[in-house]
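Re: that chain you flagged

S.,

Sorry for the slow reply, it's been a week of failed gels. I finally had a moment to sit down with the sequence you sent. For the record, here it is as I used it:
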Amino acid sequence: MLLPIAYTQLNIQDLLPDSIENINEDSSVSLVYQSNLATFILDTLLTIPDTIFSYVASLNNINLNPFAYSYRVSMGSIALKDKEENGPSGPIYTAIITAHNTGQPTQLASFGPYQYDSVKINMGNYFKYIYVRQATLEYTVNNQLPIPISDLAFKLVKESTNELLIDDIFSIIPPNTQQSKSITLQNIVLDSLLLASFSVSSPGSMIPVVIDTNQAATATVTIKDLQIDSAIARFPQQELLAYNDVLRLSLPDSMQLTETWVKSGWMEIEFFNTINQNIHLNFELPAAQKNGQTLNIQLTIPASTSQQPGHTQTTVDLSQYKIKFRGMREFELINGDLNNNQIIDPDTVNSLYYKLSASIDSTGEFITLTKNDSITASCRFINIIPDYIKGFFGYKELSIDSSTVLSFINNLQAEQLHFDKTNISLSLENQIGTTARAYIEELTAKNTNNQQQLSLQGSVLTTPLIIQKPNDPQNTQTDVIPTINTFMVNHQNSNINDLISILPNKLSYSFRLKMNDQLPIPSPASASDFLYYGDKITAKLNVEVPLSFYANNLVLCDTVEANFDTTNINNIKQGKIILQSTNYFPFDLTVTIYTLDSNKVMYDSIHSVPIIIKAGQLNTQLQKVTHPGISKNTLPINSAKLNRILRAKYLNITASLNTKPTQQHLKVYDYYSLQLKLIGDFTYLIEKQ
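Prediction finished late last night. Pasting the structure tokens below so you have them in one place:
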């Protein structure tokens, strides 16, 4: 009797997973495989380092209010001075008093010089002493007399030591005018008591003038622009300092930062005060805004004690702040010169504009200050993670050194195999707003089953891949559409066919990325590199192997279920097995068939010599198989082997391929198939009923 044992039809879809099979326009088949190699996101590509800035305002930087003292010389005091020297009939006295009383204009004769008594200038309400490193002493005369003043001599001394501070003369001061003179005081001690003395003359009036005894010339002594080493002073309420400057980031690789939108991070500010008085601080970052509001912090530093300075600190959450690092130019264009450098600052980068001001209240108490007293400010940026960052990312180099498992040809084994036109590409999907060049440093294919390996060679190793910059959507709610940049590795620029032909199951590689390679550094604040949080450069390996090859002993296999369950195997006495095959593949097949138990454990074969299946007939003009190879193989079976075969639950069919013609690359088409039918021709004992 004839008993069907097993049937199978193998085509290319059965031999290859759908995910790696591609049918071309001419119906030929290619193996297509893709694997992610590496991903670069913000924390591996670009970071803003934790940064601390410090500023110390010593007494040399503290503004002390000017000290000023004024006194008057009136027409009445001039009349009395003449009366003192010439009696009640003195001509100047008589003329001034008569003109004042009658209101009639009077022509006044010349007089002087009149020497006035020393005037004590008491500044004890301001200070007890000041060690002056440098200061300006200014003497101003405002002449509101109806006559000119001439040869006005002025002298100022320290009362305690009679040390001369100023000795000068004004030659002529016309009526209703003002004149000033100043000197620089250096490295002296100022006491709170000073003595001023002066003498005054006048050429008189050329014409009659109206005289009022209250008309006066006012002299003012001012000490200003104080730079002090130490002092015991009673300070009025005042602003001690007003400072406009920039915090400068130190960034590597020629990086320029112009703007960032903060996803998360903190700013910690800390102040120390060695002055024995509370200090009120205002710290502002005009270039940092959240919901349209500028970042502004107001603090009070406690007064120092004899043991330690006053101290305060605070931490600010910078999340959702938009911060510009372009210096103070845009603010100076509106408000004028802010840092007293006499210019409007140019565009800059990596620079955050800040304003720091400090003031004190008036307590009415004397405070001791020394040149060691100071206000120390520190600002620290901690764990800044941008949601968005803009600028110039510099010339950073990134390396990818790793390996990947190749699984699409793992089940193939061959003594000799050579593919025709293998294409490998490295695709870089770039969401990061910068240009770059990528280089293949090394690529090695490895077959760990037979320990073969081969390294990539060819011009591809010296040719860079240009990575283009995507467009900036300029908001965090819209995804950046990546640019797709493909690096081809094929038989024209490399030995990639040889690499794939060793049937590698592992690929080792080394790639290098150079950001902004061969581009000049842009002018300040003009760069347009950008990056959004989570965006990345993704490197993918793409492999396409057209199934056009020649091979010796390329091994394929399949497992099918045996068809003995419905047959009473005890009635089978002897026989043979027939293998009928229809082969459209252009390969000779050497087939072996093994028996497996219910656990798919192999325990025997159904033949003693290999089974040969003929290749399909190749049309030399079309280079396709147009007529299949038809084979019939008969396998005699003895009784003992037959019993072992009939116990099989599964059959394992293994085929070793040999292409024809040899050494010629052959394409595989999607209609190619191998049909195998296994039939038992047995002597069967039929029992009588």
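What I noticed first: The chain has a mean pLDDT of 85.

Talk soon,
D.
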